[in-house]
């Protein structure tokens, strides 16, 4: 079973490609979070969690989902993290999570996909997006081949830089950057409610035709990048920036 959490479509794309290659079902963690579904996940095949990397580790919202959900059947679990650069030492923390959960860790692999975290970085141009996605297909198929063959993902050796990124930087990232304070709409907003429907944590409610953000935000970029009229902004950090959203 392929489980995916995706804000702007990168991880959904990877999960569905792996699902097609492995002839296995792809299940949206977003949908389960949005509906509060905590039914047990049952699979005869290994579990594969596909998610974006957040500050060089698995997103905490995905960690909580794994801890709060029963996994039955096959105990093996793989992790595939989409990233704009690298995944640091995310595998070290995913392995610890598996020990807590009683799952058999089979490794973690990073897949480079187009950058989407536009509150901090720039999204690539259209041609670069197409090239990055084209290059991603080979490692995606490799990941699927390893899972299908029952082989572990190759382990990445530790480095001081990666230890700092996945450790101290990750610890600072959440209190400093993971907040909904600053999201707002411009006069271009048409009140369609798509931002509210896309939010996996139900953190956006519509008051009339205006979206209002609550305090439960994971900075997945779904609302800002999925807006059909580019009406959602984050403080002044996203003004004039291209949005990235991969449909599918």
From TrEMBL:
<keyword id="KW-0411">Iron-sulfur</keyword>
<dbReference type="InterPro" id="IPR017900">
    <property type="entry name" value="4Fe4S_Fe_S_CS"/>
</dbReference>
<keyword id="KW-0479">Metal-binding</keyword>
<feature type="domain" description="4Fe-4S ferredoxin-type">
    <location>
        <begin position="215"/>
        <end position="237"/>
    </location>
</feature>
<feature type="domain" description="4Fe-4S ferredoxin-type">
    <location>
        <begin position="180"/>
        <end position="209"/>
    </location>
</feature>
<dbReference type="InterPro" id="IPR029039">
    <property type="entry name" value="Flavoprotein-like_sf"/>
</dbReference>
<dbReference type="InterPro" id="IPR017896">
    <property type="entry name" value="4Fe4S_Fe-S-bd"/>
</dbReference>
<dbReference type="Pfam" id="PF12724">
    <property type="entry name" value="Flavodoxin_5"/>
</dbReference>
<protein>
    <submittedName>
        <fullName>EFR1 family ferrodoxin</fullName>
    </submittedName>
</protein>
<dbReference type="InterPro" id="IPR047964">
    <property type="entry name" value="EFR1-like"/>
</dbReference>
<dbReference type="Pfam" id="PF13237">
    <property type="entry name" value="Fer4_10"/>
</dbReference>
<dbReference type="InterPro" id="IPR026816">
    <property type="entry name" value="Flavodoxin_dom"/>
</dbReference>
<keyword id="KW-0408">Iron</keyword>
